[in-house]
Amino acid sequence: MDTKTQLNEALKQAMKSGDEVRKRTVRMALAAIKQVEIDRRISLDEMAVLAILQKEIKMRKESLEEAQKAARADLAAESQAEIEVLNSFLPQGLSPAELRELARQAITETGAAAPADMGKVMKVMLARVAGRAPGDQISAAVRELLQK
Predict the structure, then answer these.
(1) Which of 1, 56, 75, 96 counts the highest number of beta carbons within 10 A?
(2) What is the extent of the structural domain holding 100?
């Protein structure tokens, strides 16, 4: 079952069970997906849906940091709960060692030798990782290996 279908099913279940946090979070994620589909006039594939979920998680993490800085425990707890709900729809994440190994393979395949070749490697990496790691972790692993 694809992620968009899982989100729709989770919304139905949350509505039946009365889980307000899950219902609100899944609705926001579905709205973000629908907005992109309308703007681009296409139906998104699985990788694009996962990328949107990653973006939503990143936004929630930024909100969490801001809430913690402002000493707003209520907002921080809300953001953390939303992050956990969204994470449940992402595939199992990659460990740092697995990510470095995939980066090594991509660097070998593309023939990259310097940090200037990072774009070529990132293109290959983003296709392979597909939602299993955030973009900043991917770029950090590639940058680290290209600077050696």
Answers:
(1) 56
(2) 96-146
